[in-house]
Write a structure and sequence with these properties.
This protein is an alpha+beta fold. It has one domain (3-131). The protein is 29% helix and 40% strand. It contains 1 helix and 8 strands. Strands 1, 2, 3, 4, 5, 6, 7 and 8 form an 8-stranded mixed β-sheet that branches.
Length: 132
């Protein structure tokens, strides 16, 4: 094997390892954010304004919940988006007009839409929410 081929193989392996580490690190970061927001965040009641249902790679269906809240003190309006929710349908949200959202009191754009409050069988696995 030539030196060039060995260097290419090493380069590809290093790039793949970095991509994997970056992806896993992002999932851990989000899990830590959610835990922090649940423990320290301000819980507000947001109005569900839209539910987007998509089919992603691998054929999995997922939802994204869009909701809105207006800060009563500042009258500033905020729009929040949930994390992806896999194996869920719009039917799971029948009759749900509001949802709890945990926000960072100093930065309301850092938030967690409380998916488990709507989907009681949901599990956080591999950095995503999976409805069972």
């Amino acid at each position: 094997m030539s030196v060039t081929i060995v260097l290419i193989i090493i380069f590809v392996v290093v790039v793949l390892a970095l991509l994997l580490a970056f992806n896993l690190g992002g999932n851990k970061k989000r899990a830590k954010e959610v835990a922090w927001l649940r423990a320290n965040g301000k819980k507000v009641q947001a109005t569900v304004s839209n539910v987007k249902q998509e089919t992603g790679k691998g054929g999995y269906n997922y939802l994204i919940i869009e909701c809105a809240w207006t800060d009563p003190d500042t009258k500033t309006g905020y729009k929040f988006f949930s994390d992806w929710i896999f194996n869920a349908t719009v039917n799971n949200l029948q009759g749900k007009n509001a949802i709890d959202v945990y926000i960072d009191p100093k930065n309301p754009l850092l938030c967690f839409v409380d998916i488990p409050s709507v989907f009681p069988n949901i599990k956080f696995k591999d950095g995503n929410w999976w409805n069972s």
